[in-house]
Amino acid sequence: MNRLQGKVAVITGGSSGMGFATAEQFVSEGAHVYITGRREKELDAAVAKIGKNVAAVQGDVSNMEALDRLYAKIAEEKGRVDVVFANAGIGNQMAPPGSITEDQIDRTFNVNVRGLIFSVQKALPFMHEGASIILNASSVKGGVELGH
Length: 148
Known about the structure:
This protein has 148 residues and is an alpha/beta fold. The chain has a domain at 8-100: Rossmann fold. It has 4 helices and 5 strands. Helix 3 packs parallel to helix 4. The longest helix is centred in the last third of the chain and has 22 residues, at 102-123. The chain is globular. 31% of the residues are buried.
C-alpha cells in the first residue's frame, strides 16, 4: 500500500525502537522520512537498513539548535512536513522515591516534554491543513519501586 506516497515525515527518536519501526513502515508506504536521534552511529545504521527515502539529522530534541538544523534541512530539501511523529523520549531516569535528583528530573522533562513540544512547534510553519501530528509518550522502562 502507498498511503503515504509523496508525503514528508519527521520522526524523532527514529534510530531505534518504535521510531525506527515507524520510519521503516512510512518508507514502505511511500513517504520520505527524516529521522533524528542523539547517536550518529545508530542513525547511520538505521538509514543503511531502511535504504531509501530516508535522511538522518543528528541532534537531541531538547536542544533548540538541533531542532533548527533539522527543520532547516527539511525546508531546503522538501519545503513541507506532512507528518510529525514526536517519539523521542527517555525512561531510564527513574530512581526510588527519596533518591531522585534534580538532574534526573531536568533531563527527563527536557527530552520528554520540552523536546516533544518544540519538535512539533518548529514543524508547524511547514505543515498544511490536513497534516498529521502523532505524539508518543511511552517508555519500556519506567515506574517506581517503593520498597520498604
